[in-house]
Amino acid sequence: METTSFKNEDREKLLILSKKEQKVKQKNRYDVVLLYVEGYSRRTISNVLHIPARTVASHIAIYQKGGVDALLIKKQPGRQRKLTEEQELELKEIIASKTPEEAGIGIFANWTAPLACQLVEQKYQVKFSERGMRELFYRIGLSYTRPTYTLNKADPVKQEEFRKSFEELKKNF
User: Fold this and answer.
1) H-helix or E-strand containing 113?
2) Which of 7, 22, 58, 123 is the most exposed place for a label (fewest CB within 10 A)?
3) In terms of C-beta distances under 8 Å and separation of at least 24 residues, what long-range contacts does 94-99 make, across chains too?
4) CB 53 within 8 A of CB 43
């Protein structure tokens, strides 16, 4: 086991953080440093946690430079959004309050991802894939479901009669 200079409070803090952490990668960082602080060698830590020695060394180096707080994984920035926040809010309002026909897209009754793609391209000159549009729906708080159609002019009495006769037909076959 390696001898390291460490503070007992770091050990306690790491132990608490490790027990509370639900994200696997973050918990792994805490566990690596906790074992290191407790005196285990880098090779032993690598074998016990089944992670590469290079990763163990990296986590320990981060800890040695900045302490326990430096172990926190920062959110990756990711790709820049295609629409601004204002445009996303405007799109959400249009989809929630208007039909595609009212928005000038066509004579459709319900919104679909391809129709929303057309609207965005027409209104903001930005192209989206169908999947990208569904992900945008999710991000702005819209749920995407395939539309189901109902007949507004259908007679409820005749529909009920049909259901009963259909059930009888199913029983006979």
Assistant:
1) helix 113-124
2) 22
3) 94/119, 95/142, 96/142
4) yes
Tokens for 16, please give them: 């608490």
**Structure token pair of residue 48:** 């016990």
Helices marked H in 104-155 — which ranges? 113-124, 130-140
- 90: its two tokens: 């405007």
Q: How far apart are CA 111 and CA 130, in angstroms?
A: 12
| Assigned token pair, 60 | 């320990």
Residues 87-143 pLDDT 10s: 999 999 999 899 898 888 888 878 889 999 999 999 999 999 999 999 999 999 988
The domain segmentation of the chain, as residue ranges, is 8-71, 85-140
Please give the Cα distance from 104 to 96 (Å, whole number). 15
